[in-house]
Amino acid sequence: MAGASPGQLPLLEHLAEERPIVWRRSRRARRLSIRVHRDARVEVVVPPRANAREVADFVARHHQWIESRRAEAELRRPPSEVFPPARIELRALGEVWRVHVAGGAGRLAVRERGTGLLEVVGDASGNEPIRRALLRWLMRRCEEPLARELRETAQRCGFRYRAMAVRRQRARWGSCSARGTISLNVCLAFQRPEVLRYLLVHELAHTLHMNHSREFWSCVARHCPDWAALDRELLQGWKHVPTWIFEVANDG
What we know:
alpha/beta, 21% strand, four-stranded mixed sheet, disordered N terminus, 7 helices, 11 strands
């Protein structure tokens, strides 16, 4: 993120025990906030004017909450995965891709070869460049199908929206701005098609109701009667997202 700088504040070390709490200064942040990621990492987002003592006091006040959320994340933490992955399954798109690292010289690129084969070509001397190349491919591969699903869902249900964007987000599956721009998390591609369609209806309903009022949920229910079960499934949807999507790949 532009304007952000990660680090470890010395004043946080006595609170972090053997598991560090990292901080990230952001120009867009209005207040201090804490994020416990699904791999149990703890990140403090710091606004521009906050100083080290304010950050340390903030973390100290929320220490019990942090440890509680971190323990929950540890219980749900997915097992370690082999990287590079042997296959990538995009359930929402009905696609399964085998991954072959061919290597070679030059900048890494991912090429689609035949039916269901991804070939990673170029200098593959480290896992992190491979991860970034696969992420670039994933964003390209998913943008058009997600845009098509959103467009068809809007037409079928009678919604109107202004624009669509595909992003890679850690905590949100989607959003709808006041201007009618819908953002979709690329990680939706790893969910069942029914779950994706529910999320699309959910965000499209926000073009009429910018809240989660009774009227909003009634609107969702008209177009997706099974919304409650699908919403619960989506809350657990991160378990279907490969860890390499967010985590830096280990070169061993």
